[in-house]
Amino acid sequence: MAGSEAAWQAANMGVQVIIHEMRPKVETFAHRTGNLAEMVCSNSFRSDDDEQNAVGLLHWEMRAANGLIMQMAGRHRLPAGGALAVDRDQFSESVTNALHDHPNVTVEYGEITELPEHGHWIIATGPLTSQGLGAAISAETGADALAFFDAIAPIVYAESVDMNVAWLQSRYDKGETEEEQKAYLNCPMTKPQYEAFIDALLAADKTEFHEGETAGYFDGCLPIEVMAERGRETLRHGPMKPVGLTNTHAPENKAYAVVQLRRDNALGTLYNIVGFQTKMKYGAQTDVFRMIPGLQNASFARLGGIHRNTFLHSPTLLDDQMRLKSRPHIRFAGQITGVEGYVESSAMGLLAGRFAAAEILGKTLPTAPQDSAMGALIHHITGGAEAKTFQPMNVNFGLFRPVDGLKGGRRGRKDRYKAYTDRAKEAFSEWLADQS
Q1: Alpha-carbon dihedral of residues 58, 60, 62, 67, nearest 10 degrees?
Q2: Which of 87, 110, 139, 393 is 20 to 30 A (C-alpha) from 184?
Q3: What is the largest CA-CA distance in the chain?
Q4: In whole numbers, what is the pLDDT of the chain averaged over residues?
Q5: E strands, 130-208, where?
Q6: Rounded to 5°, angle at Cα 162 from 38 and 297
Q7: Are 180 and 167 in contact (CB under 8 A)?
Q8: How does pLDDT run across 208-244, given as a tens digit for each residue?
């Protein structure tokens, strides 16, 4: 996804771009197609609120910069309350077609296994960098690539959900239309059902790691069984929280916990189980997930899985133009740089594409302003983070410089977030205007 956005931005600046894509010639276990920008873990770009949410602000900045990813996400949007969710197949096909149709873009299919010696390059290999290229990067940087483990949530056929038990509702009825307000399927649990589910989850067979691997999970994408191991109530205060939902079959009964499923395609035939990334073995998954009321007869289009993600120690290896310090003709973008999430990865691709194109055109493009969402992210990964404890990071307001004179704490949060987003939009708009 980062590479697609980088190519789009550079091509629109008048630079001839070649995209090297190893799929489908060289496959990964997580991908299903050879399309560019294929979504694997989820079909959601998360919140689209550009006034009170940092990722929604990032959406705004990418749209302002004529971002391909946001353009196609808007075109294939699905109802998801206040979130931006898409039909993942239509989305990736449209990104692929847009790049194939661009007069300045050529797509070559085949694996790159060595760091190129000459030219201008952006490595945006995502979380699943191939073994050959990963070894070349590791050899150049003089250190083993860092890694953490990411998990994939299962997808259920909608027709197999028992709608006598489940109901349609977005949390707090969020959304401007009835379709948005009913964007999620909800499966309620009583306390005994929840306790039995947690017991089964903890006892289920899990995927084992190979010798030498350690489970350094990213907190934003923890497997549900890992969350359950942290405490029996953890899931009930996380993806299974019952707040903001009323069971239309029994309005007087307050659910102890609720499992939500989000629409995964435009037809509404597929739903993914929200927050249910898992490392359980396939047989255990079907047994445990069918304990969820409403999913007792569920059929699965895809079961969950787990994979190893690699990322650079960017604070020590990359400059503020996303160049590898030891080989400045090579830039990195996307999740491999230590950002986490589709939106963040795409945003880093947007910056890398613009930086590379400007350099080719003999221009100097300053990095994104620190008070913008993109600037806060790139500042974090290229020097703002504590190098010794560097880990993948989602965009969040904790990365932003404080606004003077505003109240701290939860009570002042709404005014504070609005001040952050107003300031960011102004700074980012000025940055874009200086390039025109």
Answers
A1: 140
A2: 393
A3: 68
A4: 91
A5: 146-152, 155-157, 167-168, 184-189
A6: 75
A7: no
A8: 755 444 456 666 678 899 899 999 999 999 999 999 9
C-alpha distance across the termini of the chain, in Å: 25
What pTM does this model have? Answer: 0.81
Cα 217 to Cα 334: distance, rounded to the nearest angstrom: 18
Residues 372/65, Cβ–Cβ less than 8 Å: no
Beta strand 105-109 with 17-21: parallel, antiparallel or unpaired?
parallel
Burial class for 57, CB neighbours closer than 10 Å (0-12, 13-18, 19+):
buried
Spatial separation of the C-alpha atoms in residues 228 and 234, rounded to whole Å: 6
Does 2.60.120.1690 match the CATH number of domain 152-308?
Answer: no
Tell me the residue length of the chain: 436
CA dihedral 90, 33, 338, 228 (to 10 degrees): 90
Instruction: Confirm if 297 and 137 have CB atoms less than 8 A apart.
Output: no
If residue 17 lies in a helix (H) or strand (E), which one and from where to where? strand 17-21
Strands (E), 323-422: 323-324, 327-332
Residue 269 and residue 186: Cα distance in Å, rounded?
16
2-145+312-433 and 152-308 have identical folds? no
Instruction: Map out the domains of the chain as residue ranges.
Output: 2-145+312-433, 152-308
For residue 376, give Cα distances in angstroms to 167, 345, 366: 40, 14, 14
One-letter amino acid of 398: G
Q: What phi and psi values does residue 134 have, to the nearest 5 degrees? A: -60, -40
Q: Which of 170, 191, 180 is nearest to 248 (CA)?
A: 170
pLDDT digits (tens, 9 = 90+) for 262-282: 988 778 888 999 999 898 998
SS (H, E, C) 290-314: CCCCCCCCCCEEECCEEEEEEECCH
Of the two residues 143 and 71, the one the predictor is more confident about is: 71
Q: How far apart are CA 304 and CA 29, in angstroms?
A: 12
